[in-house]
Structure formats: C-alpha cells, structure tokens
Specification:
Shape: elongated
CATH topology: PH-domain like
Number of strands: 7
CATH class: Mainly Beta
Helix content: 40-55%
Oligomer: single chain
Structural class: alpha+beta
Distance between the termini: 38 Å
Organism: Wenzhouxiangella marina
Protein name: Membrane-flanked domain protein
C-alpha cells in the first residue's frame, strides 16, 4: 500500500493537448423527426388559432379586438415552425468506443457526452404520435438520479432498439466480475 502512494503522480495536462470533443462525427436525426415536430407544433398552436378564428362568431366578443389574437397566434406558429426546423437540423448523436454523444439546441446549444461506465439503466419509449412517425427515444440513467440523464431523440424504432441493445452490452461488459460467485454462476451470466 505504501509503495503505491510513493509512486503517485498528478501531472498537469496542457489544454492544447486535450482532444477536441467537437471531433465526434454526429449522426443526424432521421427526417421523420422534423415531420413529427411540425405535426406536434401545428396541433398545439392550432388549438389557439382555432379559438381565435371562432371567437368572432361568438356574440359577446368584440370583432375588432379578435384580429389581434389571430395575428399573434399566426406569428407564434410561424416562429415555432422555424424553431422546429432549426432544432431538427442541430440535433445529432454518436456512439463512440467509450461513450454516447448527443447534441441539441438552437439558441442554447448543448452537447452531452455520457461514458458507458456511468450508465446504470437504459430504456426506450415512444408516445402515440412518435409511433405514427416510427420514432423512438433512448433514455440513459446514471446512478443517483430518478430522471434520465440523457434522452436521445430522433431515432427510428429499429435504430433505438439497436442503440439500447449496444448500450446494454457495453454496461454488461464493464461490470466487474463478482469474486464471490462460483464458476457455475459466472458461466450462467455469460450465456444468459
């Protein structure tokens, strides 16, 4: 024990020698992701536009005032559709040898790099609208959190299943062997 303490070193690392995290070749999200975002944006803001269109037909609404909510709703809808397009363009993901990379954001860009060694649990999920577009999300959980630390959106259901399976294999390979388990338990774990 004292021998390992005597050989301990903690040399500084020069910032210019660090690898550039932006060198990861990111896979873009599938084109169906943009269609999904456009459909959900239209559905959400369409309700407000419908109310603005119907409000002049109501007897207790002043017709001259009802044009402003319609114009405001139309502007917000157009800005939301532009944001959806830019959002789909700026999203990307990559599986590398030791980690999963996910990038998102239009105004505030975010790139998360999650090492496989930190991942405790992986799940895939999709809502009814996502299933309509054959989309699925991969959620990665690390120790100590109740919510997902990384959610990769914009994958087809087939790709999401493959990513999930690959991550589960990496997690299983990174687990330390249980020294108290006998040879029968270890071989059962390797095959099952």
């Amino acid at each position: 024990m004292t021998e390992s303490i005597e050989h301990f070193s903690n040399e500084p690392v020069a910032p210019e020698s660090l690898p550039d995290y932006r060198d990861a070749d990111l896979n873009p999200v599938v084109p169906a992701y943009l269609r999904h975002k456009v459909a959900t944006t239209l559905a959400f803001w369409g309700v407000f536009l419908l109310v603005a269109l119907v409000s002049p037909l109501l007897p207790f609404v002043d017709i001259s005032v009802s044009k402003y909510p319609l114009a405001g709703g139309a502007i917000i809808l157009l800005l939301s559709l532009l944001h959806a397009r830019l959002d789909a363009r700026h999203r990307g993901w990559a599986l590398r040898e030791h980690d999963l990379v996910y990038q998102s954001g239009v105004i505030w860009r975010r790139q998360v790099i999650l090492p496989f060694a930190r991942i405790q649990h992986v799940e895939t999920l999709s809502g009814p609208v996502e299933r309509w577009f054959d989309l699925m999300r991969v959620k990665c959980f690390t120790a100590g959190g109740q919510s997902a630390d990384l959610v990769v959106e914009g994958l087809t259901s087939a790709t999401a299943g493959q990513v999930r399976q690959y991550l589960l294999e990496q997690i299983r390979d990174d687990e330390p062997a249980d020294s108290s388990a006998g040879p029968e338990t270890a071989s059962d774990d390797a095959h099952g």
